[in-house]
Amino acid sequence: MNGPGFCPDCHRPVLWTRTLPGATTAGGKRLPVDRAPDPAGNTAVRRDGTTAWVSRRVTEQQPLMGYERLHMPHAATCRAQQTQLPLPLPKGVVRLDDRRRNRNR
User: Fold this and answer.
1) Cα–Cα distance for residue pair 11/87, rounded to 1 Å
2) CA distances in angstroms from 69 to 28, 40, 105, listed in the order given
3) Global pTM?
4) Which end of the chain is more exposed for a tag (fewer CB within 10 A), N or C?
5) Cα–Cα distance for residue pair 61/44, rounded to 1 Å
6) What percent of the chain stands above pLDDT 70?
7) What dihedral angle (degrees, nearest 10) is formed by the CA atoms of 5, 28, 77, 100?
């Protein structure tokens, strides 16, 4: 599948893309991204010569090109794929986000 579709886990609309080979990604894998462009994203999306949707990771060596749009990978926003630890936390378990926030104070 390539193009508009839905996440099989949370059923939100996504854009299915094929990854291009790069320094940090393997080529040819399917990657769902959120349909709406997002300036906070890290994935460049465009259509290739066959009108298929392709994506790649934006890096300093390969910045965003004028014909690409920046999207957020759907795994970063899919609630079904993000597991939350129960509260209160079990003894000995530390949330790294809380620890990092407190460390900078």
Assistant:
1) 27
2) 19, 11, 36
3) 0.72
4) C
5) 13
6) 86
7) 180
Amino acid at 41: G
Distances (CA, A) of 21 to 18, 58, 67, 85: 10, 12, 18, 35
Residue 25, pLDDT above cutoff 90: no
> In whole angstroms, how far apart are CA 73 and each of 1, 30, 41, 51?
16, 11, 7, 20
- Encode pLDDT of 56-91 as tens digits: 999 888 899 999 999 999 999 998 877 666 677 778
Residues 6+ apart with CB under 8 A from 105: none
Is beta strand 13-19 parallel, antiparallel or unpaired with respect to 53-57?
Answer: parallel
The first and second tokens of residue 40, run together, are: 């906070």
Cα dihedral across residues 56, 58, 64, 68: positive or negative = positive
Per the listing, tokens 């994506």 go with 55
